[in-house]
Design goal:
By secondary structure, the chain is mainly β. It has a single domain, classed as 3-methyladenine DNA Glycosylase, Chain A (Roll). 13% of the residues lie in helices and 35% in strands. Strands 1, 2, 3, 4, 5, 6, 7, 8, 9 and 10 form a ten-stranded antiparallel beta sheet that branches. The longest helix is centred in the first third of the chain and has 8 residues. The protein is globular, with a radius of gyration of 16 Å. It binds a DNA duplex through strand 4, strand 5 and helix 3.
Length: 179
DNA sequence: GGAGTGATGACA
DNA sequence: GTCATCACTCCA
C-alpha cells in the first residue's frame, strides 16, 4: 500500500494571491515540532491583510522596522507582540515587494490568535523565519475531505480604526463543518 | 464594560 | 526624548 504523501507548503505556494492561499490553508495543519514534542492541528480561521491600500494592515503606512517582513519573501513567519502580552502569528504571502500576510487566528480547539500562539509556544523568535521543517513550525496539507466543510466569510476583528470601508471587507475566513 | 501589558511608530 | 495606540483575553 502506497504511503500517503503530505505537502509542506513553501514559497511558491505562498507567493500566490492572498485569497487563494487563505482558502487553501483552511483545512491544512499548523505543525510545531520542538524536540520530541509535536503539536499539529487543523487551521480553522484566518484573516487577510493585503497590500499598501489596506488601512487595517500594518503595511498601510509604508515599510517600517516591524512590518518589513510583510514586504519580504513569501512563506516566512511574521510574528509581533500586541497589547504587551500576545504574539500574533502571520504567514507572508505574495511576491517580495508586495506587503501581504495572513493572520492565523484559530486552529481546532484553540480560538483566538493569542491563545493559539500560547498553545504552540510561538514567540517573536519566529519573526522573519522561513516556515519549514528546520525551524520547527510549518503548514502541511494532509488532504482532508474539503467537501465536508464550508468556508464562512466575515469582517476582520478589532480593526474598526481602519475606517468603515476596510473594516467591513469580508477578509476573515472560517472553516465550518457542513451539517 | 474595563484592565493589564510593553513594543512600536509618529512626532518633536 | 515623549506619547497614544494596538490584528487580544479575561473577569465582571
Amino acid at each position: 500500500m502506497a504511503k500517503k504523501k503530505y505537502i509542506i507548503y513553501t514559497e511558491d505556494f505562498f507567493a500566490q494571491s492572498s485569497f487563494f492561499v487563505a482558502e487553501h490553508i483552511l483545512g491544512a495543519y499548523l505543525v510545531r515540532r520542538n524536540g520530541d514534542h509535536v503539536i499539529e492541528r487543523m487551521i480553522t480561521e484566518v484573516e487577510i491583510y493585503d497590500g499598501l491600500d489596506d488601512r487595517a494592515s500594518h503595511a498601510s503606512r509604508g515599510i517600517t522596522l516591524r512590518n518589513k517582513i510583510m514586504f519580504g519573501d513569501p512563506g516566512y513567519w511574521y510574528v509581533y507582540l500586541i497589547y504587551g502580552m500576545y504574539s500574533m502569528l502571520n504567514i507572508v504571502t505574495r511576491e517580495a515587494g508586495y506587503p501581504a500576510a495572513l493572520l492565523i487566528r484559530g486552529v481546532e480547539g484553540a480560538s483566538g490568535p493569542g491563545k493559539l500562539t500560547q498553545l504552540y509556544n510561538i514567540t517573536r523568535d519566529f519573526n522573519g523565519i522561513r516556515a519549514d521543517l528546520k525551524c520547527g513550525l510549518w503548514i502541511e496539507e494532509k488532504g482532508i475531505k474539503r467537501t465536508r466543510y464550508a468556508i464562512e466569510r466575515g469582517p476582520r476583528i478589532g480593526i474598526d480604526y481602519a475606517g468603515e470601508m476596510w473594516a467591513q471587507k469580508p477578509y476573515r475566513l472560517c472553516l465550518r463543518k457542513r451539517v
